[in-house]
Amino acid sequence: MDAYKKAGVNINAGYQLVDEIKQLSKNSELGAFGGLFALEELGKYKNPVLVSGTDGVGTKLLVAIEAGLNETVGIDLVAMCVNDILAQGAKPLFFLDYLGIGHLDPNKAKKIVAGVVQGVSEASAKLIGGETAEMPDMYTGDHYDLAGFAVGIADKAKLLNKASLRAGDALLGLASNGLHSNGFSLVRDILFKQHHYSLDDRLPGIDQDLKTELLRPTRIYVKSVLPLVDQGLIGAIAHITGGGLPENVARILPENLAAEFNYGSWPVPTIMNDLQKIGHLSFEDMKLTFNLGLGMVLAVHPENVDQVKAALIESGEAVYQVGKLVTGSQEVLIRKD
Amino acid sequence: MDAYKKAGVNINAGYQLVDEIKQLSKNSELGAFGGLFALEELGKYKNPVLVSGTDGVGTKLLVAIEAGLNETVGIDLVAMCVNDILAQGAKPLFFLDYLGIGHLDPNKAKKIVAGVVQGVSEASAKLIGGETAEMPDMYTGDHYDLAGFAVGIADKAKLLNKASLRAGDALLGLASNGLHSNGFSLVRDILFKQHHYSLDDRLPGIDQDLKTELLRPTRIYVKSVLPLVDQGLIGAIAHITGGGLPENVARILPENLAAEFNYGSWPVPTIMNDLQKIGHLSFEDMKLTFNLGLGMVLAVHPENVDQVKAALIESGEAVYQVGKLVTGSQEVLIRKD
């Protein structure tokens, strides 16, 4: 394979990586033509529905690459996918990852995939396959892209359904772990292009340096929220990603309801306030780009609020009653008074 | 969203694209947090197993980008994934795609996804979701990467199993549609770096220009091969991708068998012979990089060979008896005498 290696593709590095991923994931079947997942517990489901999601990490990757810290973007990757599946009321079953990279360095790839393995574990799912594509000339320098695919399952009748929502339902916000994996093109533009911060700098009010703050992994809400879904205590879930509260909460609203958030009823992460100041961002830009501190928003009937809050706190979540559903036409209002 | 747009991310272009993909795929549910797939026909399966695969198109994308012909790489993407699922004996159910792109041009993205929709249709599957990630600074110029994810299903007892293979089983090769989606870093190195061919040039013995020859989409074998799997006529399937016949056929061999191919018993595409000559490739390089004209290899008990060949020809495949299984230790031998 001299010619192929000279052309920039190192097949042996790929094989070495597969062996290492097998060990990391404790799944010796990796490397087959397709990943297998036996639907053994199907008896539990009357009308099983598979719920699938795909996502990437976005340009947060460029921060990880620049910082040389590739250990946690895999957690972000899994989080972006499994939180979407959870938002439908489904239980994540398995995950596959795609790594596109210019030059395959097995040690670096192993660190990336170790993050995926950790994320999959936090989501109580299983890594059953993946692809590492060495693509010289497509990715320049150290660049790589990462895409993930998750599949979950739910009983059709138990999928979260916006028809169950009522005016007066509470909106509970679960604290995000900072920026998560959205808005990074704007973040990088403000910090590194408009201004010339270094990844070792600290922003006002933040103890950690920028690389640590920016790279904090997206929170995975599966273990704390799924049991409440199973108990029928949750009406709907919005996973707050690109588009922020307005776009993502709008997706759970039926035609006759609107969402009202009381700005100030939850803490906005300091990094976002700093970015607003440094970048002279309008609140419009802020709310459509960042999660404003809420990684997930749950719509809950008033009679279930206390039980849901208590259970979430018990699971280690920071939870805030951030607003409510009102009669309307799918508006998402963030009241600042 | 002025700030985000200035930072290189056009959210509205993304929304426009989702609308267009909904129309293309005739799936109005696209755009939800997760794609849904009801397992309605589960009654047919005693012990259902989901089979998943993820893959990309590799640097064939760079040829498509250079040629400005982005309409068929989506077919390649689907083919790479669903042929892997078929290789396990499973039926592809649904597909999701991930498009990472530097600057989102909805018209171009629409062309790319139209290829995905066509591929999914050829595989009798359903496109239930996808992600388009606009990542300025990650992808330079017109570059984009494409990853796909397919899920299929099979009854556990009907998954193809290497234990069913016997010495004397015939190896049937299904003609590839040229290079498919492998070896393109080498192809590009030979044609465009070592030599300075243009995409409009013609190679000896090939009527079409290079861009047409190189971009011919990977063949999707689902419709022709799956019915034979369902009838129990196929012992094992190797999908010939990166690593060629040696690596991919080795994956279907049990410990006590080897595969013997008779080189010359099937036509090697002219493009590969041209590349060997122009690039001074050893046969070793050739066989480990290219499919040598066989996109899929089936192991079939001798008593079923005539029926399988007839059915494949009837389905429009070009099929060749290319070798047989012999006693051995998982060697893959390509006999040139």
Automatic annotation (TrEMBL), chains A, B:
Limits of the PurM-like C-terminal domain: 166-333
Location in or out of the cell: Cytoplasm
BP terms from Gene Ontology: 'de novo' IMP biosynthetic process; adenine biosynthetic process
Pathway: Purine metabolism; IMP biosynthesis via de novo pathway; 5-amino-1-(5-phospho-D-ribosyl)imidazole from N(2)-formyl-N(1)-(5-phospho-D-ribosyl)glycinamide: step 2/2
Residue stretches making up the PurM-like N-terminal domain: 49-154
PANTHER family: TRIFUNCTIONAL PURINE BIOSYNTHETIC PROTEIN ADENOSINE-3, TRIFUNCTIONAL PURINE BIOSYNTHETIC PROTEIN ADENOSINE-3-RELATED
Name listed for the protein in its UniProt record: Phosphoribosylformylglycinamidine cyclo-ligase
Organism: Lentilactobacillus kisonensis DSM 19906 = JCM 15041
Upper taxonomic lineage: Bacteria, Bacillati, Bacillota, Bacilli, Lactobacillales
Gene behind the chain: purM
